[in-house]
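User: Modeling request: complex.
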Amino acid sequence: MCDHCGCETHQHHEPQEQKLKEIELEKSILAANEQVAQKNREHFRNKGIVVFNLISAPGSGKTSLLEATIEALKDEIPIAVIEGDPETERDAERIRAKGVPVVQITTGGACHLDAQMVHRAFHQLEGQDFRLLFIENVGNLVCPSSFDLGEDIRVVLVSVPEGPDKPVKYPASFIKADVFCVTKADLLPYFDFDPEEVVRNAKRLNPKLRTFVLSVKEPESLKEWINFLKEMAAQRA
Amino acid sequence: MHETSLVLSMCAQIRELAQKEGAQGVATITVRIGELAGVEFEAFSFAFEVYKKQDPFFAQAHLKIEKVPARLRCLLCGHETQAQGLTPCPACGQWGLEPITGKELDLLKVELILPEEGKDHV
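Assistant: Request completed. Predicted assembly structure:
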């Protein structure tokens, strides 16, 4: 056997005129992911489930926002969660403690979730009754934005301590999002972070963004977000 | 470093096509990547070079990246511009520029190496 490539012949390694064939493709590099994402999307729609993909840097408060959201909505709208992390079941345990079905995806170091991982996780939720599904992506403000998971609504989050320049520095994540949440707003007095300016910059990148400024420590600030989720659930019903 | 996943996905697609065509290798791969696609061109090329070393089918493959600049269109007056970064519309001065190009992440074409006629390569 040829030790170059494991083939049965050496002929093709010798210098020779190669016979080439050019093929035009014009396909997405992520075509395989997009196909699975589209199937996920159809599947979720048929079941009347609204799906959210939460994207932010690590520590922006995605899990905390989910805990507060579940607390506020659990008597009205059944919820399920898919958690994505490089390692551990920690986030899933926090969500499980709130009494909703949850599946943890551990990516083994990968920096994002893809549609196939979500497809497998969704199968583990079969038999559970829920209307809102939150997918908490791996903490990373760059990579997850390239991967459609089949969600209806993509939410990007930035916490006050991260600083006001995130929309300008990470435009791709904001351009592709539907919703932008500024989190940890209770810390505004301690940071140079003008939420109006940050929201304005995000909207300049993506005029269609729906925006919320909230803190899980201040239940009043969550009202608009919770109403938005209720609206979304009602539209799909 | 999701560029590695992108390279894996791209090469899987090409391999599938190459098998259908009975090719024995890949000569060139042309991709089109927009400035707003969230992909680092150098990281993408680097990930491909690493992948090539592990997959003999791609050993001879040359990667060409066509970069697409971001073009933006004003939602209010329709003016098109190639302006960079956060900026109002250069024509009407209002905010609300929406990207029309720059989000591309496409596999445009591949050049496959076919077996020499008469020498069946299996």
